[in-house]
Amino acid sequence: MKKVITYGTFDLFHEGHYNLLKRAKALGDYLIVGVTTEYYDRQRGKLNVLNSLLDRVENVRKTGLADEIIVEDHEGQKPEDIQKMGVDIFTVGSDWVGTFDYLKEFCQVVYLERTPEISSSVLRANKFPIVQVGVVGCGRIVPRFLAEAKFVSGVNVGAVYNPHRENVLPFGKKYKLEPYYEEFDEFLKQVNAIYIASPHETHYDYAKMAISRGRHVLCEKPLAFSVGQAEELYHLAKEKGVVLTEGIKTAFCPGFMQMMNLARSGIIGEVRDVEACFSRITPPGLREMADDQYGGAFLEFGSYTLLPIFKLLGCHYENVEFDSILAENGVDLYSKIHFRFKHALAMSKTGIGVKSEGQLVIAGTGGYILAESPWWLTKSFEVRYEDPTKIDKYSPKFLGDGLRYEIADFVSKINGIERISYCLTQEESVAMAGVVEKFMEERKRQKEGQPA
Ligand code: CTP
């Protein structure tokens, strides 16, 4: 008996899939079809598959062509399956020519002609109109955002706004974006959604204007400087039926989610302490150092360090204390924020003029999780226990610089695929604005030399 195997996502099952399975079956006597898991698809950068694994398996089953359906959930599985199942022929569509030649060591490899002009990507794009995004600001993060947005299907970034003509014209030219610098409204008319990457103090105003006009908003952190502002924006977004997401990229990184879920699973017992540190020595001229009102270490990096604290301990702390080392202009070079929760403690450390170990330690009653720098991308972490010889190491897959996961989540929410914001909840985002509010009051007091 000649065994044939093929693999695919089979999202929005279409004629191309059917033809492929039919021809695959005709290559032998027994057809095995591997269907990818959502987790594996995300890991390999396929970020907006619409059908669930069960639906995709069911659609393959309904063709009646598969003698056996298996699930593909990790890289390197194909040679395992081929050897384990005694496969004679591996086959996929001609879009993969050459990619799987390494399997010739184990079986025959056949690339079948792909059915022209149909694909899941095209169907996905037809199902949901392309989200037209405009960026606000020409800062350092925007080119990274543009590069990462290319990996997310269903989104096109085509316009840029910046009130300074002299900045936006060359920037627009360089990155092939339509530049706008006078009327913000005109800019909004060209897009369905905006990505706000302008200076911190402008976030709230741009977000409010865009939401009021029915545009979806992905806003760089910090979204707002007070609970009042943040709540107002979320209420307005709800009223207008648009998506508002605070762009804390860590929250959307697959490894970070995995680490949070492991910590919640009880693997280290009850979580009693979260210590998160993020520091980057910053040259004097840069905004973070020079802007005495909205610059400084905490406003720059605090969203990252607060994230695991609020995710694991909740947003209702009993007490918070701030301590900072200020530069002469009043900018905090180093800030420590200490939280007390009912049954736990937490510490956020951020620095732009002090370098420390950028790590995250989640301590529990039965062990701890240690994530080394850059834990905010979460490419690896360890679970450790009282017994020093027992260490569980995790190396989640991570693609690009992380922004693609945030963009994909934003687009999924706009399209109504991800309905609940579990990566970063509104409550967490508002609680962060609350800490920012208290921190700014405290820093002002410290700067003016007043007692707390
Ligand atoms: N396939 C095909 N003809 C098409 C589309 C897909 O022969 N028009 C084949 C692929 O080459 C692969 C299998 O069907 O062997 C499953 O492909 P999959 O990646 O799930 O489908 P696509 O439509 O290519 O999906 P996407 O657009 O998400 O890449």
Question: Which strand order does the major sheet show?
Answer: 13-14-15-12-16-17-18-19
Q: How much β-strand is present in the residues?
A: 15-25%
CATH topology of the largest domain: Dihydrodipicolinate Reductase, domain 2
The N- and C-terminal alpha carbons lie at a distance of 81 Å
Tell me the major beta sheet.
8 strands, mixed
Q: Briefly note the structural class of the backbone.
A: alpha/beta
- Shape field: globular
| CATH class category of the largest domain | Alpha Beta
Count of individual helical segments? 15
CATH architectural arrangement of the largest domain: 2-Layer Sandwich
Average pLDDT, to the nearest integer? Answer: 95
- Low-pLDDT runs of 5+ residues are none
Number of domains: 3
Percent helix: 25-40%
Query: Total strand count, please?
Result: 19
Rg is 25 Å
Bound molecules: cytidine-5'-triphosphate
Q: Can you say what the CATH homologous superfamily of the largest domain is?
A: Dihydrodipicolinate Reductase, domain 2
